[in-house]
Amino acid sequence: MATLAENVVARDQPPVEEKANGVEQKAANGLNCENGGKACGEPTAEKGQAEMKPAGKETERDAPKEEEKKEEVGIEVEPKTGVSFPVKLDDGMKLLSVGLRKKSMLGMGIKIYSFGMYTDNEKLKDLLKSKIGKAPAKPSKEMYQVVIDSDLSMLVRLVIVFSGLTMSMVKKNFDEGLGASIKKLTGGKKNEELANKVMGQASDEIKLTSGSVIEISRLPGFVLQTKVMDEVVSKVESELLCRAYIHMYLGDDPFDKDAKEKFGMSLLSLF
Length: 271
Description:
CATH class: Alpha Beta
Number of domains: 1
Distance between the termini: 104 Å
Pfam families: Chalcone_3
CATH architecture: 3-Layer(bba) Sandwich
Radius of gyration: 37 Å
Region (Disordered): 1-74
Order of helices and strands: HEEHEEEEHHEHHEEEHH
GO cellular component, one term: chloroplast stroma
Protein name: Chalcone isomerase domain-containing protein
Family: Belongs to the chalcone isomerase family.
């Protein structure tokens, strides 16, 4: 039997760490667990399993996955060529009309390219309402003129359909078309130097095949930018040049009258 002195000494000593199967079992909250069991307060099996889940696993359901598919974008087909145009571009501009550029060669109407006209609809809607007010009964010359004269973002995407087209032919076509449009807007004055700036810097070595894309954009501040297969070939700041280019599609003698009419109907829908 232990003496009184021995009992007092035992009470004053700190708890002793025990080992079970070679593993130290520390006391929890100052107490030892009996029979070498788990320390009091140790996480339960269910809690332990939860803590062992990979980090970030719970948030995967909430955060969008990187592989998540992008928003599906519809297309519109130009009926005379079968060329498809997305109804919305990555920058938010929307398709208002599609059409076809034909050229008379050797007495035949040759299909040169299909085109799609894109605009910033929200800004264009505000502009039309401020300039015209109430929507007219049908597309009006005043309505088209607002678009031609403005400096709002607009893009015309050209998709080549004539397989025998060369870069030199494209440049000549642009020079002629823009030159004629500039003359109409200036009362008959030519400005060949200005017209040549759009495609003049494009190399004749660029290979054009059916399906090749040329994009000509009117940027805010009256800047006309030309891309040939995603490569910028010119960027010209000129109000007259911007107006003349859009005039070729929406003016009195447009490349495609049906495309102009559809563009006008799309404008009416913005009111």
